[in-house]
Structures are given as C-alpha cells and as structure tokens.
Design brief:
By secondary structure, the protein is α/β, with parallel strands linked by helices. The protein folds into 4 domains: 123 residues, 3-Layer(aba) Sandwich (Rossmann fold); 164 residues, P-loop containing nucleotide triphosphate hydrolases (Rossmann fold), CATH 3.40.50.300; 76 residues, Helicase, Ruva Protein, domain 3 (Orthogonal Bundle); 90 residues, Arc Repressor Mutant, subunit A (Orthogonal Bundle). The chain contains 21 helices and 16 strands. The strands form 5 sheets. A 5-stranded parallel β-sheet has the order 2-1-3-4-5, sandwiched between helices. Strands 7-10-13-6-14 form a 5-stranded parallel β-sheet. Helix 4 links the parallel strand 4 and strand 5. The protein is globular. The two termini are 34 Å apart.
C-alpha cells in the first residue's frame, strides 16, 4: 500500500519552525564587539559564509544594543572597550540572554579579567593576536551550543510547522511511556539518568527535559565523558588551578562553574574514571567541588542529566562504577527502547525522515514502495534511530523520481533483508496466462492480461497489488535482458539505464544471483 507525503514548503519560516544552521536558509549571526577595525575586518573575512553573518560593534553600548535588537547566536567580546569594561558589557549581555555564548578576547594571556569573565559564565576566552584556526573552532562550538540550547526537541503532541531531525518520533506504547516520564520529571529539579543503546536518542530526550524545565532560559551544555581522557575531563568539568599538572600554566574555570544556574548533560557517564566519579558524587550531594589542584570550595547550582549505554548495575558489581554515585543517579531513570523493539514506529519514522531530507536535499520523494517499507520493518537496526536516519538519508541521495525503491537503500539493509515472500509463476491464474504469453512472444496480449489481473485483484479486495505486479514485471524484464546479454551485467545495466550496483541489488532481490553474504 502506498504511503503519500505532502511536499515540504522550503520557504516556510513561520513561528515554531525548527531550524538547522547547516541549511543555506538558516543564517546564524556572530556579533564582534571590539574597537580594532583591522581585527574586526579580519574576523569578518575569515568567518563569513553563506551560513554565518558577521556583524560588529565598536563600543560596549552599541554591542549591548545589537544584542538586544539583533539577537545574535554568539558574541566575540573584547575586555577593553573605549566606553566601558568588557566585564560590564558581559553582565548586561547575560541579563538580556543568559544562554548566549560569549567568547572573551584579551591581549593578556594571564589576565584575571578573562578568568573572572569565565567564572561568571563566559563560554571561552582567546588571546590576542588571535589564532584564527582556534577562533574558527571556538566559534563553531559556540554556535552549536547556541543551537542546542534554543532548539527544542518536539514531542508527538506538540505542533510544529516544519519537519526536523530534532523531533522525537514514535507512538508505540514504549515511547508513550517515555513521553510521560519526560513530562513528569522535566519541571522537577531531580537528577535524571537516561539509559539506552547507542543511537536511541538519549541526547534528544535530555534536551527535551531541559527545554520543558524551569531552567530553560538558563545555559545548557552537553559533555561526552567517553570522548575525553580522564585528566582532561576533570579539568573540563571542574576546572584547575595554575600548576595543578604539567601544562596548567593558568587557572581554568570548569563547566560546572560556568553553567551555574543551568543544566549539564553528561553523556556516557559510565565511562567516567573513578576519580572523576568521586568528584561528581560530591557535586550531586552538596553542589560543591574544588578545582583540580585547588583547595577553595566552589559552590554552584546545576541540574545534571546523565546518560549511558552501559549496564551500570553490572559495572557496580564488577567494581567499575561507584555504587553510591549509581544510587544518586538512579533516582529517576528513563529507559529508551531499541528500535527493533518498537517496529510499529518504523513507518512513522520513515515518513518523518523522508520529509526532513526532502527539504534538506531538495528531493521530491512522495512514496515509499511497499517492498522498501518491508525491508525497513524487517531490519534489526543495531544502530537504532541514528542508523535508521542515516539509511533514509542515503536512500534519498541515491533516489530519483518520486518513489523510494529498495535499491536506493544501503547494502547493509539489502543484504540482511532479502524478501521473505516469494511470488510464484502461478500467483494468480491470469498471471500464469500472462507468463505464457510472454514466453510465446505476445507482449500486447500479456499487457492486456496484466490489466485484467489488476482489475481482478481490485475486485477481490486483495492487498499488495503494487508489490505483486512490480515484482512480476521486474522478474520478466530482468530475465529477458540478462538472457539477451548472456549474463553480462555491465551491458545489461547500460541498456537498462541504471548503475551496475542497482542492477545487482535488483537481481539479488529477485533471486537471480546468489546472496553476497552466502559467498
């Protein structure tokens, strides 16, 4: 049965739409507040792109007004301005928008002013002369942080004007339970532990909790604990004092101090080292910590949302994770089901991502062929929704026309999902007669019989008409073409007007060549 999609209006930008900076129509804005015209010019020339608009202000007063009027996505702020202190400007900016990432620029590498700005919540600081390679990296991360803190992952009962990869999709009983838990815990101040395999959407759920919380106007930050070595992770989270370890030439303010009043998402918390676990436990218990190598107690107010794909109970039993930290985290848990356990959600996910990538890739896919949907529903999806999303995007990149056929899917889907239903020659008496006509060299009569078959199946109310007919036509066409070219796939693909890879996928699906996984 065909599944029809409405085409996306790529010009729609109504209220409530979800935007992604990587699309040409989504122009992010960077505000540079600095009184050095040459530096401002260099930054604009280096960073301006079709996706990023760089604007400037030469005084603190003008910079504050531009923040209020233009609502930039990130700010580069010099600490020394002609009319007022950069710290005063920063405080005013934070009053206007606490979530706005502000990168401090200073001509003094060890200035206390920059460190003070970081302790107040500034995103990062850079020293002059500016290293433009580092500048690009810092600005890119700041813009992504701005995007994550402002775009709310929408739940199924929330109306949106445009499709977005940020939407949590699924109406299965398992996902309904997830939505209920998000609604219950979001307004609370409790720590939340999100469990689930890789690719199930743990970060989307974390941001949904944040966006529906009472802290949604305050900063949000995500840290992947598995992506950083233990010493760097400790410094990143808690900061360090000068001389705390080799290379610690000055004090660093950690994220728990920077995001005071906001929310921190600790992804893959099960990969935290024992030492970092001990520091995190104290933070959870007392909202206090010391910087690495320091003695001063820092008090902060952050909400922690943690996630892991590990079995923490097993890790506790085997001594890899602190039991007391586990109990602290385990007060409220959300278990995300793997995609293979909610197959009823696959059609909805497919339709959703087709709409998303139609818009992103400027495609016009309106129908998912039944055989394609059958393959999607039967695949086990070890990478869960992340793998599913990638597969649909791959399929749209390789698709032409308005129908998504099986040969557009990645080989990982096709190899593992050969059709379980075979269509014999005598699937229907009329089809059998049609087959005989083809063999006898009477194509016109075969076409008449094909139309008669279609009418009969319609009158009988039988399902899978599209799949049966397409399969029969494909089977006879490919058989005749391969016979004509004596099995030469290259010549057959050229005459058919398709790629050799597509031809081989078709032949495997029709059972005309062996499955590669069996070779």
């Amino acid at each position: 049965m065909e599944r029809e999609f409405e085409m996306m209006n790529t010009d729609s930008n109504g209220s409530g739409s979800v935007q992604r900076p990587n699309e040409p129509s989504e122009l992010a804005t960077l505000l540079v507040i600095d009184d050095e015209p040459n530096l401002v010019f260099s930054i604009r020339e280096t960073l301006s792109s079709p996706n990023l608009n760089v604007i400037s202000a030469f005084t603190g007063r003008d910079g504050i007004e531009q923040v209020r009027q233009r609502r930039p996505n990130a700010v580069l702020l010099d600490v020394r301005l002609p009319d007022q202190s950069g710290l005063d400007v920063y405080d005013r900016i934070r009053q206007i928008d606490p979530r706005l990432p502000v990168v401090i620029m200073t001509a003094f590498a060890k200035t206390d002013t920059a460190i003070e700005a970081m302790s107040r919540g500034a995103y990062e600081y850079l020293t002059k002369p500016v290293d433009f390679r580092k500048l690009k990296s810092v600005v890119t991360k700041a813009l992504e942080l701005s995007r994550l803190s402002r775009i709310s992952p929408t739940l199924p009962n929330e109306a949106v004007d445009e499709p977005s990869a940020e939407k949590i999709v699924g109406h299965s009983p398992e996902m309904q339970e997830v939505y209920k838990k998000i609604g219950r815990i979001a307004p609370q101040e409790s720590t939340v532990l999100i469990l689930g395999e890789s690719g199930t959407g743990k970060e989307l759920v974390a941001r949904a909790i944040y966006q529906h919380s009472n802290r949604r106007q305050m900063p949000y930050l995500a840290i992947n604990c598995a992506a950083l070595p233990a010493t760097i992770l400790e410094s990143e989270l808690f900061g360090h004092e000068r001389g705390a370890f080799t290379g610690a030439e000055q004090r660093r303010i950690g994220k728990f101090e920077q995001v005071n009043g906001g929310t921190i998402f600790l992804d893959e918390i099960g990969d935290m080292s024992p030492a970092t676990q001990a520091m995190a436990l104290r933070l959870l218990q007392e909202q206090q910590f010391e910087r690495v190598g320091g003695n001063d107690t820092i008090t902060t107010d952050v909400r922690i949302i943690a996630a892991t794909n590990r079995d923490l109970g097993k890790d506790v039993a085997e001594g890899r994770f602190r039991q007391d930290l586990y109990y602290r985290l385990n007060g409220f848990t959300i278990q995300l089901p793997p995609l293979r356990d909610r197959p009823d959600d696959i059609p909805g996910l497919a339709e959703h991502f087709v709409k998303v990538f139609n818009r992103e890739l400027n495609k016009n896919i309106r129908t998912i062929a039944p055989t394609t949907m059958e393959i999607l529903e039967r695949h086990q999806w070890p990478g869960n929704v992340r793998e599913f999303q990638s597969a649909i995007r791959y399929a749209l990149v390789h698709a032409s026309g308005s129908v998504l056929f099986p040969e557009c899917l990645p080989d990982t889907c096709l190899v593992a999902n050969q059709p379980s239903v075979r269509y014999p020659m005598d699937i229907h008496p009329v089809i059998a007669e049609m087959n005989s006509s083809v063999v006898a060299g009477e194509p016109e009569f075969a076409f008449i019989k094909l139309m008669e078959y279609v009418r009969n199946v319609l009158h009988e109310g039988r399902q899978d008409l599209y799949r049966n007919v397409i399969h029969e036509v494909d089977r006879h066409m490919f058989h005749e073409v391969m016979k004509y070219f004596h099995g030469n796939q290259l010549q057959a693909a050229e005459r058919l007007g398709i790629s050799r890879m597509t031809l081989r996928s078709k032949l495997r699906a029709l059972g005309m060549i062996p499955d590669r996984s069996q070779n």
